[in-house]
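Why Cytidylate kinase? Reviewers of the renewal asked for a concrete example.
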Amino acid sequence: MIDNMSIAIDGPAGAGKSTVARLLAEKLGLLYIDTGAMYRTLTLSVLREQLDLSDEDRITKLAGALNIKLSNQPLDNKVFLNGEDVTEAIRQPEVSRNVALIARMPAVRQIMVNIQQSLAEKGKVVMEGRDIGNKVLPGATYKFFLTASPEERAKRRYRELIEKGYEVSLNDLVRDITERDNTDRTRLTDPLIPAPDAIIIDSTNMSLVEVTNNIIKLIAAGNNGGTSE
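Here is what the prediction returned.
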């Protein structure tokens, strides 16, 4: 395998990006960067400050002032906001419902992209998000786009939230994920679309461990473009 390898993983909500990226980082000895956690942390701060979710100027200023730190460890990936551990807080349903509104703001995205590119400068990284292959790491050694049916993705998110003690409705999650998909795919800045050279993997009928092993096989074979099922 390539010594200075970088892997970009994109996909919609609930596609398994975080789990697969963490497993890849652990198995391949790479730095793990969860870009979605950065947008979630900003969203949490916006909600705490009770800012108008449409006030792009104030939210952009807040984004530039926040001190967001990621531990970047695949087995213990913690997120800190101004020194506070917000790893669990950023996964609250209220944050999930509003993060797309924040993430679609062009000025906010540029601030985040600059930070993400700086983190990845030294290579040996697996980075996951929604615009990694097209925007953040266009020169990544390998690019993967994970997807699954909205129903399957909602079931995964449902199990995750129930395990954490949240009371949620599966039907509501299907609706939320469908709405998030539409928001991500239609935003003017860096919409959610596969990079032209990304390998597309539909994991609807696969476990995330199977997805990870499939990706490792593709990397070992030097496959860096196309579709895998």
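The chain has a mean pLDDT of 90. This is the kind of structural detail the renewal will allow us to pursue systematically.
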